[in-house]
Amino acid sequence: MSTSIGEDAQMAKIPAYATYLYKHCVARKGSPDSEFEGCDEILAYLVVRDSQGAVVKITELVQSLMFGTGPTVHRKVSTLAERKLIQLTTSKTDARAKDIKVTAAGLDRLKEQTKFMKSCLE
Fold it and tell me: What are the structural domains, with CATH classification, of the chain?
């Protein structure tokens, strides 16, 4: 994202987090990929829960009430799986349930988003 020198000086007066959110929203607004909205948040949640030793099921995402209603969560999970950012497997403890695991591609996406965030905060 290119900015003018005057814009850069103006942005320097704004708290870094506000600058990041602004640039993030502008970048998302220009994206034709509306299906992906909210998917990065799910990826982040999955990575954090995995680091805590938890195996996350779709029901946990729905019950957390953080990512929308059941149908919304299922749609987001389907989008992530179709893009190979997560892997769904049958749960070892409940054959009706699906365990969710972030793939290497999913981790790469979060790393790219981290680079974007850092560039906004510099």
Answer: 1-32 (no CATH), 35-121 (1.10.10.10)
